[in-house]
Amino acid sequence: MAEGSVPAPGAGQTNGGAQGAWPGGNAEPDPRRWLILVVIAIAQLMVVLDATVMNIALPSAQKALHFSNVDRQWVVTAYSLSFGSLLLFCGRLSDLIGRKVMFITGLAGFAVASAVGGASVGFPMLVAARACQGAFGAMLAPAALSLLATTFTAPSERGKAFGIYGSVAAGGGAVGLLLGGVLTSYLSWRWCLYINLVFAGIAIAGALSLLRRQAGPRGAQLDVPGVLLVSSGVFCLVYGFSNAATHSWSTPSTWGFLGVGAALLIAFAFWLSRAKSPLLPPRVVLDRNRGAAYLGILITAAGMFGIFLFLTYFMQDTLGYSPVITGLAFLPMVVCIAIASNLSNIVLLPRIGPKPIVSVGLMLAAAGMAWLTRIGPHSGYADTILGPIMITGLGLGLMFSTAFNTGTFGVAPQDAGVASATVNTGQQLGGSLGTSLLNTIAASATTSFLIGLHARPTPAALQQALVHGYSTAFWWTSGIFLTGAIVCGSLMRRGPLRAAAPAGAPAGASAVSAASAASPRGATPR
Q1: Is residue 497 classed as helix, strand or coil in its secondary structure?
Q2: 304: which residues sit within 8 A by CB, 6+ positions away?
Q3: Which of 49-58, 310-319, 384-393, 495-504 is predicted most confidently?
Q4: Helix/strand/coil percent split, the chain, to 5
Q5: Running DSSP on this structure, what letter comes out for residue 383?
Q6: Does the CA dihedral 369-375-381-383 come out positive or negative?
Q7: Measured between alpha carbons, how far is 135 from 119 in angstroms, rounded to an integer?
Q8: How many CA atoms lie within 13 A of 333 on its CB side?
Q9: pLDDT: is 160 or 482 the higher one?
Q10: Helix axes 33-65, 155-186, angle to 10 degrees
């Protein structure tokens, strides 16, 4: 049966079918679904780790390959541009040609690009490898999340699966700081890229043995104008934000690209209502809960930049921590993220729905960042940093895992890939916005502090100025999280998640439940 089709009830179908099927359905959950979750989690961990691992490796790579500070930004920007601009296209492609194909292709391509990057003999080779990593990451990330959404359809199991996935997605960046510090300190910066071959090899072996390939929906077409509009628009926005982080908001290369990107995305939204087979069906984003989840992820991703980057700078440059100790310092936050992610999806979400969980989570994160503004040049870890990052970790765990679940809940199987890509696009755009906005705020606050001294700054004054910049960025991060709480609290519906039944499903069945009924017996839609 074609992926995404819903069988009409007929003879031989009995009520009380397998868990996850709509009433009258006969599909059973895949007995290997928990092994599939392990494969998905490994793949997601590889993608999330890559960003922070490379940030730790950059200074060493710069020395080895002899490129300038101006060029250094392109090692990060090349990845962001290709990843962000191709996400929606690759998400829809996974719906059309199959998630298994896109998942394995993304894994293999990401591994090869990582190997090339690790073996780089010059700056152009490294940048090209990073751009290819981004392109294959855009294939991998939405396919992984859509596999998760379509493999786990029973509410109780879905909560556990998304709790684990949310822990990896929200906490992987902090783990990457530790791993990057260990690899750079004891091996080489090149191993920050080579390590991806280990993750990819395990995930590919698991995917080949566990996932079943299924055909895409019959007669489906790719929305080429939509692909061109959204890919170009996101490319321009990511480039504009990246340029603002290293240059200025007033330069033509910043506001020009941002303006063009915004215009292209407006044109894309206009086109969606007129396209025969739109790249991003309006039904995916117009649901209040899903739309709020996408916005919440974008806003939260913008604020998360303030945690990892500035706190890393503070601990290494001001407190003198080594990269390894800095990574270890983030581990309590990772533990809190994991606890809150599973608590929210397994215990809270089925009972009270996403609205209070996301709102409280973002308010906790805002409180943690406000508490972190108390840092000073001689702060101690236990009395100044530990408490705030644990509170923030609890908040981010509640928010991210719930938003991932909500953003893919109730989506028909034929839209699962593009819905998952929308989640990832929000993360990417939010991260780019946070990078440029908070960098500018921190730099301006540092400069203003030094100007206010009216004297030649001493080394101690320079440290105070830097800490003032970090503290100001943390205040803004707190405000960003609070804004997200207000937005999500206003838009999300009260009560547990309830998905409308798609056409052709029996009365009372949800879209997610119908997704499992769309599969052959014993298989889940992939």
Answers
A1: coil
A2: 173, 396, 430, 431, 434
A3: 384-393
A4: 75, 0, 25
A5: I
A6: negative
A7: 19
A8: 33
A9: 482
A10: 30
* 307 and 329 Cβ atoms separated by less than 8 Å: no
| Tokens linked to 23 | 């009433």
N residues, the chain: 526
The closest of 143, 199, 148 to 35, measured between CA atoms, is 148
pTM score, two decimals? 0.81
Q: Which residue has the tokens 């906790």?
A: 364
How far does the chain reach from its first CA to its final CA, in angstroms? 12
- How far apart CA 6 and CA 333 sit, in angstroms, is 43
Q: Which residues lie below 8 Å from residue 130, measured CB to CB, with a gap of 6+?
A: 54, 75, 76, 78, 79, 113, 117
- Name the residue with tokens 């100001």: 472
76 and 241 Cβ atoms separated by less than 8 Å: no
Whether residue 226 contacts residue 279, with contact meaning beta carbons closer than 8 Å, is answered with yes
Contact assessment for residue 526 and residue 213, using Cβ atoms and an 8 Å cutoff: yes
Query: Exposed/middle/buried for 323, CB within 10 Å: 0-12, 13-18, 19+?
Result: buried
Average pLDDT, the chain: 81
- Among 228-237, 386-395, 492-501, the minimum mean pLDDT is found in 492-501
Which residue matches tokens 């006969």? 26
User: Over 60: is that where the pLDDT of 425 sits?
Assistant: yes
Coil, strand or helix at 251: coil
Token pair listed for 80:
């962001």
Q: Find where tokens 């490379």 sit.
A: 54
Give the model's pLDDT for residue 499: 58
Left, alpha or beta for 7 (phi > 0: left; psi -120 to 50: alpha)?
A: beta
Mean pLDDT of the region 443-453: 84
The encoded tokens of residue 11 equal 């003879």
- What is residue 214's predicted lDDT score, i.e. its pLDDT? 66
Looking at per-residue confidence, does 11 or 173 come out higher?
Answer: 173
Dihedral angle at the C-alpha atoms of 83, 86, 91, 94, nearest 10 degrees? Answer: -100
Q: Check: CB of residue 430 under 8 Å from CB of residue 87.
A: no
Angle between helices 123-151 and 416-451 (to 10 degrees): 130
144 φ, ψ to 5°?
-65, -45
Q: Is 378 exposed, middle or buried (0-12, 13-18, 19+ CB in 10 A)?
A: exposed
pLDDT at site 216: 58
Contacts of 432 (CB under 8 A, 6+ apart): 80, 84, 237, 238, 241, 242
